Amino acid sequence: MKRNKTVLDIQKMKADREKITVLTCYDYATARIMDGCGIDMMLVGDSVGVVCAGYDNTLPVTMEEMIYHTRAVMRSEPKALVVSDMPFLSYQIDLATARLNAGRLIKEGGAAAVKLEGGLNAVSTIEAIVAMDIPVMGHIGLTPQSLHRMGGYRVQGRKEEQAEKLLADARAVEGAGAFAVVLEGIPMQLAERITHELTIPTIGIGAGPSCDGQVLVIHDILGLCEKYSPKFVKQYVDLKPIMAEAINAYIAEVKGGAFPTEGHSFR
């Protein structure tokens, strides 16, 4: 019987030069399909606030929402490694709050690891959570919870001083004990340099092909998110017209009396 993937398996994939596949996942049904396809890692991302709840950005997402969606994913009993995002204000206030909320995502949500944004500024937080034996995935570059400071969703690290800062962030995240790090929205040459320098896996999103793995939002690859369409997204199928066709057919049959039939009824 296939066993559950662990952080050690993910790290070994880098050593073996095997690419790591990651997608966001927010619910039971999608988790079952995704895990059946053999995805390596599922990220219960705070992006759920944008693609499922309709928020303009990830900032309004709460711990309760993250725990709810993490529980839903875990009920599918996935073999993939499940990582849950720490939402805004769940880890920035103080170390005690960060440790408590990381613990809640593991204990109440059932995740195997947590992810948080930040580089040098997040070192003490990563260290504090790792000291609880909770695996942490870092996230540097374009960090969505920092969109106001960054002036929106902008590529980070194009200027030399920014690139050096991101290199320092990557080294700091690894040094703090993170088992992997997401590189978002950075030039591919910089991502390649970081990937070669770090011993922990890099998971790219808008960071080019040289990262150890890639992550995308599931709604983006299925054509179900209309709020934005970043350059780095590849849409693998457009489910919207397929869903609309089924819904329109249902409406027409109900209004026309073609559904339900006797075959869909009880005696």
List the helices and strands and how they pair.
Elements: H1 7-15, E1 20-24, H2 28-36, E2 41-44, H3 48-51, H4 63-74, E3 81-85, H5 95-107, E4 113-115, H6 123-130, E5 136-141, H7 147-150, H8 160-176, E6 180-184, H9 188-197, E7 202-205, E8 213-216, H10 218-221, H11 239-256
Parallel strand pairs: 1-2, 1-8, 2-3, 3-4, 4-5, 5-6, 6-7, 7-8
Structure report:
The protein is an alpha/beta fold. It folds into two domains: 7-236, Phosphoenolpyruvate-binding domains (TIM Barrel), CATH 3.20.20.60; 239-267, no CATH class. The chain has eleven helices and eight strands. It has helices spanning 7-15, 28-36, 48-51, 63-74, 95-107, 123-130, 147-150, 160-176, 188-197, 218-221, 239-256; strands at 20-24, 41-44, 81-85, 113-115, 136-141, 180-184, 202-205, 213-216. An eight-stranded parallel beta barrel has the order 1-2-3-4-5-6-7-8, surrounded by seven helices. The model has no long low-confidence stretch (mean pLDDT 96).
Short summary of the structure?
This protein is an alpha/beta fold and 267 residues long. It is built from eleven helices and eight strands.
What percentage of residues falls in helices of 4 or more residues? Answer: 40-55%
Q: Helices and strands, in N-to-C order?
A: HEHEHHEHEHEHHEHEEHH
Which structural class is indicated by helix and strand composition?
Answer: alpha/beta
Runs in which pLDDT lies below 50 for 5 or more consecutive residues are none
Rounded to the nearest angstrom, the radius of gyration is 20 Å
- Give the strand order of the largest sheet, numbering strands 1, 2, ... along the chain: 1-2-3-4-5-6-7-8
Query: What characterizes the major β-sheet?
Result: 8 strands, parallel, barrel
Oligomer status? single chain
CATH-defined superfamily of the largest domain: Phosphoenolpyruvate-binding domains
In the CATH hierarchy, the architecture of the largest domain is: Alpha-Beta Barrel
| Helical run tally | 11
